[in-house]
Amino acid sequence: MSSAGHASRGPGMLRVLPTVRCNMACSTCNLRAEMLDAKQRHESSPDSWRRVINEAAPFKPYIYFAGGEPLLYEGLPELIRSVKAAGLHCGLTTNGWLLSRWATALVHAGVDDIWVSIDGQAATHDRLRLAPGAFERALEGLRLLHSERRRAGRAQPRIHVNAVLNPSCSDAVEYVVHTRSQFHCDSISIQHLSFHSQEARARHAAEGFGGTVPGCYLANLQFDGANIARRVERLATLLPSLTFQPTTDSIMDYYSERWPGPGSSCNSLWRILEILPDLTVCACNSIELGRAGEQSLLRLWGSCRLEQMRAAVQAGRFLACCFRCCYMNFSFSRQMPQ
Ligand SMILES: C[S@@+](CC[C@H](N)C(=O)[O-])C[C@H]1O[C@@H](n2cnc3c(N)ncnc32)[C@H](O)[C@@H]1O
Ligand code: SF4
Ligand code: SF4
Prior knowledge:
This protein is of the alpha/beta class. The protein has 14 helices and 14 strands. A 10-stranded mixed beta sheet has the order 9-6-5-4-3-2-1-11-12-13. Strands 7-8 form a two-stranded parallel sheet. Helix 4 runs parallel beside helix 5 and helix 6 runs parallel beside helix 8 (about 135-150). Bound molecules: S-adenosylmethionine (SAM) and iron/sulfur cluster (2 copies).
């Protein structure tokens, strides 16, 4: 499709961050640095968000609430009701700590999807999230969500569990898949750990595009890619409906320091706009385009900056931050890009 075509159709998804506050401090999360940014800490009112949602409604985007921890934003049910009143679909990912408190309100507000993060068995989950009791609280929230949905006689929200495959935890995602009945979920997705080296961070800074490098910084990047590939194969056989993100056709290369190759593609630049708590509109990994309410979303979606990035990625000129970005479908090449 031509760039003009993309611009007039608008984004298919708005990734809305009502807050970047969080009540956990997960070892793998890269949001902690961003949370220090005062601009991102300024939170907009449900009324301001409603105006943004109504402006976006003609493109029919899916509204995905992320964070931070979205359930820390008290106005979330009101926001969900605005989304539904505008005729749109929406979902959120939560760490589950406050899920029991919000389950009834979320079901009745009409949210379409809820992903609950589960990193493995209780001890692993609580350790990775630096939050004793977190697993039990998430489990209790899932139980309540499921029973509230049944009580309301609804098919929504669809309940999903999202597990991150952390290579340093040998059987954690396996546990999630094997014991899935305890989560009362409709589906499980597994995310590959997003991580980067010091060198990737330096390359990103030199490119000067701004934004952040996805994933966490790891000093030791020595992973047994062959073993992870075997684990993924076994899991895929066990549960064919399991989804992996990003999809990679060479897992071993993903866990090494190789670059994406010519067959790689980005799922975000043509599909997703991100909006920070203070209504700053971003693309890619927090690359700022402007502000909602000051410039139209359609104009920002067709902005020169974003078009330049689309052209670069379409031509196979990936950015340093593309590597292990969860929006990238990887196809690896043995050659390093120029
Ligand atoms: C950034 S969190 C935001 C939502 C919420 N606070 C939560 O933890 O579910 C979204 C998802 O990213 C996952 N995640 C965190 N760090 C990651 C990393 N380095 N690589 C891949 N996924 C990661 C979390 O487990 C969670 O499922
Ligand atoms: S993964 Fe979620 S819960 Fe953990 S620190 Fe990041 S935002 Fe908070
Ligand atoms: S794959 Fe690259 S261009 Fe696409 S969102 Fe990720 S970092 Fe940005």
